Amino acid sequence: MAKTNKKFYVTTSIPYANAGPHIGHILDPLAADVLARYKRIKGNKVKFLVGTDEHGAKISRTAKTQNKTPQELVNENSVKFKELKKNINLSWDDFIRTTDKKRHWPAAQKMWRNLVKSNDIYWKKYHGLYCVGHEAFITEKDLKNGKCRDHQREPEVIEEENWFFRLSKYSKKIESAIISGKFKIIPESRRNEILSLIKSGLDDVSFSRPAKDLSWGIPVPDDPTQTIYVWCDALVNYISAIGYGSTRSVDISKFKYWWPADLQIIGKDNLRFHAAIWPGMLFSAGLPLPKRLFVHGFINVRGDKMSKTVGNVIAPEELIKKYGIDPARYHFLHEFPYSDDGDFTYEKFEERYNADLAKGLGNLVARVLTLAQKARLRQGFGGRGKITLRQNKNFIIAVKDAAKNIEKSIGELKFNDALVAIWRLIAKGDKYIDEKKPWNLDVDSKEFKEIIGSLLYLISEIGRLLAPFLPETSEKIANAVKGKKSIALFPRLQ
């Protein structure tokens, strides 16, 4: 497809590199991957960014327990996160690490200096609650029964002198940007949640830690006794990756081209950081806000949050090895509404696999190609109207309707709805075969060829529409229809 002048910059929250990935880490990059692939198909110039958050006290503590240096630990774990590209067939363009002294550190320090210029950094003695799990100071509002809501652990009480950021100064501007839609937060429930928090009052936030307590991080400019805290470090990755902080003209131009991000994708535990602190920083630095922020829920396992203590953590490679890449992609895109929490069980995974992939898509493709092979018919893949035989007008209309529904659903980040639109086409194909019963016809008859020609068109279009969601399967269907090879897409699980 021809290129357009439109750019699309999508980012994901960067996971903490104290350990390798689990299936919960799939949601951000998988959603971004579908969008990136779809936008590329539409001719947009796309940048899809992922990365790892590699500083902090927890990294130092974890490394010490494993007899490693912090750098050795994050090097090992960043590789594991990079392997998601192959394991889940992701198409990201860039991977940023916060330990990157060439690309990231200058950006974090430039952001700090710009906040200082705006008179938004000040010195304060601080007494507060520190959650080791979050690597962040939290408030009483974040506690339930005296424990962090997310980590079920009592916070540490810490008293120290730090640099602070005047987040309170930007409360009204952030609120106005959200209400006006200039900074759009999806879904509505998360928008309302952050607006409620803002209306209750945004407190200024601790922006540094004493270097004696947090040595593994980026030094505060002009103050070696302090280390930049997570906000002005990890959050800056979204702009450090596109040239912010660099003095090279090519990087300055790159930053101006790509920022603001068209979409940022995060989990619900990162809402306050990305919908309050990050916009406040951007306002202070004189930078535009991202256009949209999409906030998804968690993946639970049998109703429980994944935990090493409980022993229910599932690694992505474990799932892929057992079922394959596209079955995993399909499950998380179809079964998880993204706006809410989802529950994973192997039983539900296999049930959905057999019903939708083996019996549904796989069976239709196999039926059509088996019949087509009998008559040596093949249909080109790569656009509408390429079939040499007469097409079924109902199929053409159905495909156009499905494409419209997919475009709308992807725009609203409702990937399950987009897949439902494709599976309606599969059901339509199955019904057509059952009604026409082509196996009872002479393979040389005009009627047989018209029926199979129409079905080849349909599965070609189904394959084309699947490209952003199940890219491997889409390619297999294309090759099979072209006659390069026969396929059994999804063998039934016993």
TrEMBL record:
In short, the EC number is: 6.1.1.10
Q: What GO CC annotations are associated with the protein?
A: cytoplasm
Q: Which Gene3D superfamilies match?
A: 2.170.220.10, HUPs, Isoleucyl-tRNA Synthetase, Domain 1
The Methionyl/Leucyl tRNA synthetase domain covers 141-369
Write down the CDD domains for this protein, in alphabetical order: Anticodon_Ia_Met, MetRS_core
Query: Which GO annotations describe the biological process of this protein?
Result: methionyl-tRNA aminoacylation
Compartment(s): Cytoplasm
| EC class name | ligase
Gene Ontology molecular functions? ATP binding; methionine-tRNA ligase activity
The record ties this protein, via SUPFAM superfamilies, to: Anticodon-binding domain of a subclass of class I aminoacyl-tRNA synthetases, Nucleotidylyl transferase
What keywords does the record list, in alphabetical order?
Aminoacyl-tRNA synthetase, ATP-binding, Cytoplasm, Ligase, Nucleotide-binding, Protein biosynthesis
Which branch of life, at top level?
Answer: Bacteria
The UniProt entry, under PROSITE patterns, shows: AA_TRNA_LIGASE_I (PS00178)
Q: Which residues are in the Methionyl/Valyl/Leucyl/Isoleucyl-tRNA synthetase anticodon-binding domain?
A: 399-489
UniProt record similarity statement? Belongs to the class-I aminoacyl-tRNA synthetase family.
**Described function:** Is required not only for elongation of protein synthesis but also for the initiation of all mRNA translation through initiator tRNA(fMet) aminoacylation.
Q: What is this protein called?
A: Methionine--tRNA ligase
Taxonomic lineage of the native organism: Bacteria, Candidatus Azamiibacteriota
